[in-house]
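Protocol step 4 of 6: structure prediction from sequence.
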Amino acid sequence: GSSSAFTCALLKALYSLEGMILNSNTLAEKACYIEMIRLNQPIGKQDQFISAYGGINEMKFSRSGVEISELMISKNTKMDLNENLLLFFTGYSREASSILKDQNDRSISTDSTMLKNLRLTKEMGMRSSEALKSGDTESFGRLMHEHWLNKKERSNGMTNENIDNLYEVGINSGIYGGKLIGAGGGGFLMFYTRRPQDLKREMAALKIKEVPFTFDYEGTKIL
């Protein structure tokens, strides 16, 4: 999502320089227009909208637009996620466009395997929403694992031997689940675990860098 976060930030800065204030929805739609129409990138709208809005949200996509609403989860659930969701850099940087183009082309051509995979992804998103709203973070973690297995079937370039080995280290360290963030092929691995120190220790032994993070609830803003 780095390109969409950058686009939202650049637009916010340029409009602010001209004394104009964009609401979050307009900002996200303008970023989508630049990336998807002007630059013809084979991406979706989720990254622009979450960058513009911030928070932990549920998004519903249709031909008429994007409906975004705050996911109503408890303070305890948010604390749980802050403590037990960990992010690590795999050591691999990649250009997402080639992986996404293949997925986009297969979707447009109504490839039955791809459409089945994407439908399952949507169902898991709905199940994840319900798990978090009920405070069942363990089920959310297991859904991350289920999602990762499904995501790997989407493209031959989704993972590699070293990334799979890192995921196996996570399994052996007691994670409930995890996945590569973004298009795949490299970047960052996110895990959900109730044993964060064990996972941190194992990754540190492999010289895999943890990337500490917290949730942002303001979205794109002028500092």
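Step 5 (inspection) to follow. The chain is about 55% helix and 15% strand.
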